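Sample 1 of the test manifest.
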Amino acid sequence: MKYITLFIIIFVLWLLITFNLETPNLIVGALVALLTSLVFGKSFLKDSKKFFQLQRYFWIIIYLVIFIWECIKANLDVAYRVLSPSMPIKPGIVKVKTALKTDIGKTFLANSITMTPGTITVDIIDDEFYIHWIFVSSKEPEQYTNKILGRFEKYIKRIFE
Amino acid sequence: MSDTISLIFIIIGVVFDLFGCIGLIRLPDVYNRLQSATKSVTLGTCSILFGIFIKYGFSAIGMKALIAIPLLFFASTVAAHALIRGSYKSGIKLWDKSVIDDYKDVQK
């Protein structure tokens, strides 16, 4: 089942990239997709049923909108820090705990944290994220956990778990 | 009309790329430089690619630009993560005005 799902995804991606519906192109695409899905199918998602649950796509769209908005806002914030003459930065590495269980959920949360400027995920050990933060605004773990993770965690939970 | 919109996106992208480069020069240490080098630049480049997508629409060029956005996104986040972890593991110190370092404890 998960081999077929992966095959379909790769094949559609191939069609979009080449943007060409002639027969030779389709055959080459199918061969490449078959080969790739045979090699990498083992390490694909454990539970490919989730691909066919439509409410997850709804949450992905909402998540993308929020994510892009946060990304732009935070980029402006970093631009301000970089450009202002006194350079108001206060860097440090903080530890936050996440409630997510699955590997894919943690991966996406880590990537989202890395993409919002000001924070980079340094390491994940079990359910603890180590995050380099350009402006550590408070010393209280609850406050900064909420500040870093709170925006994304609940949506990622709905999408991947 | 779509030319104007795509031009606006491309200009925003170039400006963010510029901010990223300024940050790369001004910020004090590896970790802070990675912050601006990977992220402002990623958002800027994604914005340029989106501008190209708007200009060319659903054609061969436009679709390639649109697909490059998620690829660039994942590549740059994973690269940033690998670089920052690698520099910590190989013993590069944090900036001396850093306020907190929780990661130190798990290194032993």
